[in-house]
Write a structure and sequence with these properties.
Elements: H1 26-40, E1 44-45, E2 48-49, E3 61-64, E4 79-83, E5 86-90, E6 97-100, E7 105-110, E8 113-117, H2 131-147
Parallel strand pairs: 1-6, 2-3
Antiparallel strand pairs: 3-4, 4-5, 6-7, 7-8
Length: 151
């Protein structure tokens, strides 16, 4: 199941379904939008995989890797979220971040691809050591990690 429901009116960024005047069964549209928002807010993926897992838990998400098969076929680079209604696929937008639980770091969607966001290495080596500069740089890296900007 690739797209369980199709909506004629959607939001411009993430294609969230929109209500329209006089619509019956509004809960279907609202619930689909809420599922997408649940995936997108503070996104976290289990891992990057090309084959759907056999027994996903409700709410788990994966990033669909290249060479995708089965229900993931044709969904490369999308976030695949499992819900009671089956798979939901969300296309990434430029600048989107998702935390990759398997590698304990963030991924950033930039230039049409997902890449790992790696923290800079702490200063080391060299023949002349400026201990104050190293202490300051280490403190900056620690502060950025504590705020979640670096992992």
């Amino acid at each position: 199941m690739t797209d369980p429901l199709s909506f004629s009116s959607v939001s411009p960024r993430f294609a969230l379904p929109m209500l329209f005047a006089g619509q019956s069964q509004k809960e279907t549209t609202v619930n689909e939008a809420l599922l997408a928002v649940d995936v997108l807010l503070h996104s976290a993926i289990e891992a990057v995989i090309a084959t759907p897992p056999t027994a996903p838990s409700n709410g788990q998400c994966w990033l669909v890797g290249s060479g995708a098969t089965g229900a993931f076929a044709g969904q490369t680079d999308r976030i695949a979220a499992w819900s009671e209604g089956g798979w939901r696929f969300i296309a990434p937008r430029e600048g989107m971040r998702a935390y990759d639980i398997a590698v304990a770091t963030y991924r950033l969607y930039s230039g049409g691809t997902w890449r790992l966001v790696a923290a800079p290495a702490a200063p080391s080596g060299g023949t002349v050591i400026d201990s104050q500069a190293r202490t300051a740089i280490t403190a900056i890296i620690t502060a950025l990690r504590n705020t979640g900007l670096l992992t």
